[in-house]
Amino acid sequence: MTTPRALRRIPIHVAATLTVVVCLFPVYWMVATAFKPSRDIQSEHPQLLPQSWTLDHFRRAIDADGFGLFWRNSLLVTVSAVLLALLVALGASFAVARMRWRGRRQFMLMVFVAQMAPWESLIIPVYIISRDTGMLDRLPTLTLVYFMMTLPFTIVVLRGFIATIPAELEESAQVDGCTRVGAFRHIAFPLLAPGLMATSLFGYITAWNEFAYANFLIIKQQDQRTLPVWLSSFHNTFGTDWGATMAASTLFALPALVIFLVLQRHVTSGFAAGAVKG
Fold it and tell me: Which stretches of the chain are DSSP H helices?
């Protein structure tokens, strides 16, 4: 027999189901289109399920000019930006969470402001600075931009995560002869794995998917472009090759999906812990 409490939860379940369907349907449509023959994609009556399957679009996407090169560029820029952000944010978050110094609250306020600022509004200033310093058309420029985009969030999450680790653990290690840095490295750092994974995934997705800066800062040197810009190459004067575009988008989304599935448990606990205390 259905209880009143169960009846009250039905609208919540229905709303949650609708939300999941709305969010996942574009992803499903992208993957389904990637496997459809071109004649079915251009049909006036598109089918929800592919009537026949083909891998021609994936072959065309992989064989397209620059696929391997742009994949390498994206991976290099993304990994470099994430590692740099983790290195800097780890020191900053430790200083904020463990030390007492003048201007600490003002520093965190500036970090929150930087996190809330829309990065698209800074494209023109960043472009002018890059042009005047001779840094246009270079991958290190994109790396620095993505580093700045992911750094505020990384500091906020790691700071909250470090605050949940009892300081007494590090103090005990210091009593046993460890330095402050040694105590953090041997005691606190191993406990930060979920937080590091959570922030790494956020930084990876942010840098991997970014298009605007990659399109504006890499203009002349085509071999310095990244995968999001490469996706636009399937649009030409004759129209858009939707099959190849969807296949390329599916290949583009796979790394982030695989990393998230592998690190899902750690990512969830990392975000939860980083939001509890600060």
Answer: 4-35, 38-41, 56-63, 67-98, 104-116, 123-132, 139-163, 167-175, 180-183, 189-191, 193-209, 212-217, 227-231, 242-274
Q: How far apart are CA 50 and CA 54, in angstroms?
A: 10
Which has the closest alpha carbon to 159: 274, 23, 3?
274
The whole-angstrom separation of Cα 162 and Cα 196 is 11
Task: Answer whether 168's CB lies under 8 Å from 249's CB.
Answer: no
CA 146, CA 82: separation in Å to the nearest integer? 8
96 forms bridges with which residues in the sheet? none
Task: Give whole-number Cα distances, 122 to 81, 84, 119, 199, in Å.
Answer: 18, 21, 5, 23
* Encoded amino acid at 34, one letter: A
**pLDDT of the chain, 278 residues: tens digit per residue:** 556 777 777 888 888 889 988 988 888 888 888 888 877 877 777 777 777 888 888 888 888 877 888 889 999 999 999 999 999 998 888 888 887 888 888 888 888 888 888 888 888 899 999 989 888 888 999 999 999 999 998 888 888 888 887 877 777 877 877 787 787 777 777 878 778 888 888 888 888 888 889 888 888 887 888 888 888 776 654 567 788 888 888 888 888 888 777 776 665 555 544 444 44
**What distance in Å separates the CA atoms of residue 147 and residue 164, rounded to the nearest whole number?**
25
Cα–Cα dist 85/80, whole Å? 9
CA distance 108 to 100: 13
Q: What are phi and psi of 232, to 5 degrees?
A: -75, -10
